[in-house]
Specification:
Helices cover about 40% and strands about 10% of the residues. The protein is α/β, with parallel strands linked by helices and about 375 residues long. It has a six-stranded mixed beta sheet with strand order 10-9-4-3-12-13, with helices on both faces.
């Protein structure tokens, strides 16, 4: 699993850790049942107003991003200044650290929430799986803090690596088993050679660009470059061998299409990665699962997961199949959400959600990325 949402590139862009997601680069099936009811958000917190906004009368949807937009410094700073998030993070990482202990990883709770937290570089350089467990824990902590402040979501959207946190948030996996699966995925990704590149163009233009560069294919060949993630109408991620990606990036430069190589030491969403996908599925199949407390929609499956799904196989699909974010964002409109919240440290997935929903609905529900908004009221 990889791509999810990637922040716009620039001199201040943080290094991406873990799973990629289609970044927003500047210039150069299931039909869910509508869930209505009396689940009014209890928090008196409001956004952009001193009066209770209408969206607080309807339950939110939580968006779980992939690895491409994770900032450990944002998590650390927000946990220090936000009591509800700090409490949630302590609880979540206490559970995750039962897994770090059994798997020989550094204890994340004391490290991330202590007086000398790691930099993004230090986290990325730690034992394999450390950054993935940090991202998993961050998403779970944000979800818990948001649920406490604004009510349990009516549904969740999982993008690539974010599917693990979305399913765990819904109670399908325990936090400990979700963390084990995140570590299993990190190990699988070490057998996924190649890289990922974000392109600032629509999917159709990206495919034309790959054809022009002579690297397009079905993904069955090791030299093929494929469209891995579609974030919105202006942002995709492509996956493949490093040399072939360099040709695609040159073709993008010739077309004046923005291209950014993701800082991730692997490829993903590529059909040639079947062996790694099978190994990951075998590991996840060992973990028990429970009924979901709320629906989870997958950007890879393109639909809501159901009780008969082989979730181990579906999660492994994130290594070999493309993800498309717009369809599942449109699906969750059926729940009539009052607001959509990004359950992560960045804002790229929220940005894609605004772009997609604004084109389909007027007015569209508001979308917020709490950790990227300094004035967000918890």
């Amino acid at each position: 699993m990889c791509p999810g949402s990637v922040p716009p590139p620039g001199p201040e862009s943080p290094a991406a850790l873990g799973d990629p997601v289609a970044p927003v680069v500047p210039a150069v099936p299931g039909s869910p049942a509508v869930l209505e009811g009396s689940a009014v958000l209890e928090s008196s917190a409001v956004l952009d107003s001193s009066e209770r906004p209408p969206f607080l009368r309807r339950r939110p949807v939580h968006l779980f991003p992939g690895q491409g937009d994770f900032s450990v410094s944002t998590l650390v700073a927000s946990a220090r200044t936000t009591p509800g998030l700090r409490k949630a993070a302590r609880e979540v990482f206490e559970q995750i650290d039962t897994v770090t202990a059994e798997r020989g990883l550094p204890r994340l709770g004391p490290w991330l929430l202590g007086p000398e937290p790691p930099s993004g570089r230090a986290l990325a350089s730690a034992t394999t799986g450390t950054s993935q467990l940090a991202l998993f824990g961050a998403s779970m902590a944000v979800h818990r803090a948001l649920s406490e402040a604004y009510g349990v979501p009516s549904a969740a959207v999982g993008v690539s690596f974010g599917e693990l946190a979305a399913l765990t948030a819904a109670g399908v996996f325990t936090v400990a088993d979700g963390a084990r699966a995140a570590h299993d995925l990190a190990l699988a990704l070490t057998f996924c050679p190649g890289a990922l590149t974000a392109l600032a163009c629509p999917e159709r233009s990206a495919r034309e660009l790959l054809e022009e560069a002579g690297v397009a294919g079905t993904g069955t060949g090791a030299a093929d470059v494929v469209v891995a993630v579609v974030n919105d109408e202006r942002s995709v991620v492509v996956s493949g061998p490093v040399a072939a990606l360099a040709l695609a990036e040159k073709a993008a430069a010739d077309r004046r299409v923005g291209a950014v190589r993701l800082r991730l030491p692997f490829s993903s969403h590529h059909p040639a990665l079947g062996h790694a996908a099978r190994e990951f599925a075998a590991a996840v199949r060992a973990y028990p699962r429970s009924a979901a407390r709320f629906p989870v929609h997958s950007a890879v499956a393109g639909r809501r997961y159901g009780p008969t799904d082989d979730l181990a196989a579906r999660l492994a699909d994130c290594l070999v199949r493309p993800a498309s974010v717009p369809p599942v964002l449109r699906q969750v409109l059926a729940y009539r959400p009052g607001v959509l919240f990004e359950a992560g440290t960045g804002s790229a997935l929220a940005s894609s959600a605004r772009t997609v929903l604004a084109a389909d609905l007027d007015p569209a529900p508001p979308v917020h990325a709490p950790l990227a908004e300094p004035a967000f009221p918890w």
